[in-house]
From TrEMBL:
Pfam families membership: FapA, FapA_N
Protein name per Swiss-Prot or TrEMBL: Flagellar Assembly Protein A N-terminal region domain-containing protein
Domain Flagellar Assembly Protein A N-terminal region, residue spans: 22-188
Alphabetized PANTHER family for the sequence: POLYMERASE-RELATED (PTHR38032), RNA-BINDING PROTEIN KHPB N-TERMINAL DOMAIN-CONTAINING PROTEIN (PTHR38032:SF1)
Transmembrane feature ranges: none
Originating organism: Lachnospira eligens (strain ATCC 27750 / DSM 3376 / VPI C15-48 / C15-B4) (Eubacterium eligens)
Amino acid sequence: MSNTEIVNETADIDDIELHEVYVYIADDNMSASVRLGKCDEGYTYDEVMNKLSLNGIKTGIDEEKIRWMISQKIYDQPVEIAVGKPVNTGKDGYYEFFFDTDAINNNRPTVREDGSIDYFNQKRFEKVNEGDLLARYHEPTKGEFGFDICGKLLVPKPGKPKPRLHGKGFKTSEDGKETYAAISGKIEYCNYDLSVVNVYEVNGNLDMSMGNIDFNGDVNITGSVRSGVTVHAMGSIYVGGFVEGATLIAGKDIVLKDGVNTKNSGKIEAGGNISGRFFENTEVIAKGDLQCNYILNCRVLTYGRVFVEGPIGSIIGGDVTGVMGISTTSCGHESNVKTLLRVGSTKEIRKEYAELIMELKEVDGQIETFEMANKKFEMIKQNMPEKYDSKMALRVTQSKIVKMAQKAKLEEKSKALYNLIRDSERAVVKVKNHIYPGSRVYMDDKTYMPSSVFSHIIVKKTPSTIILSDYDE
């Protein structure tokens, strides 16, 4: 608070009588107080108002409080008599969703109190019907103007609009504020990308009598998948029961409420994550993570991490690769069964990255050739228009556009692989309980083979060797 009237601080205020109006203005000009000096003759309303005017106070004045101070002879006590109106910043626009966005974006199964994974009650996806209201957009507000006690208008900062929803399988109202499902299916949402995709439903078990499935969308099987069946989905695959000697291939995720035992005659492959209660005698490939309660005699390759959790939580036998790391309750068995764990980028990944770089160079060369051809066509068009072949020039331009699109996809894929190879250098193996002799951990060109039972450890790679550290570090 700044005092616009200077008081003689060398005198005791109780010993003097000053007929004076003291005005105190806040530094932000949003409030002001008045102190009336002690005197016998009192003050008039106009006297106080004139003093406020001289100090530039124009708005937010509480006239009733000033009259009260004068009538009650409130002396030598500052009283707030003017208050500005704070500016109210506008609120950003937002979407009100009528589906569970958290469940859609986080479809991992829940962990029970005993540490096991609850796959049975996992919410696999959210289904909507044609015409269902999916979202309502609330426009940003402009905010409310304010003012200070000196009469200055305070302009609010308006709220920011949200990006419009984009995707497929929905329609919007005429005013663009409400979004409805255009078809019945499964809803997908992430970062304003909204889609309703087709779901192929199989009520009950899927067996050879029904044949194989090849579907451009998601596949939901409420029962089990019997031996000899192949299911291929461009989206995700959901299975409510057990998977026998079948092959499941999904462009996105594979979610199993029960487990898998293909007896080495099937395969589970996903472009995203895979989760299930258990995996036995099967091949598992995931571009994302694998999460389960135990793995027995499987060949596993994940570009992400392998999580084997719960009271059993064991990897026994087989060959399990988690490029970004492996976390398990136990590894191996008391019988010293051979169990292989691998972390870090594989030879196949490095080879794939090298092949992508070579392909990029080849596409760059083709693009350069088309650019040179375009320049020649431009020269011909300018200098010898009678020999200019417009159709051929158009074909060259179109071919260049195709190659540019191909290059963009290759660059995106090569960047993802480069980051994967780089980040996988920090991959570790975490064993909460026991790792038994017979287990082997491979980290690039280095190998760790426990000579006895070790517990509660993390296996890490250094530039020169492999070291063990405590699990809780």
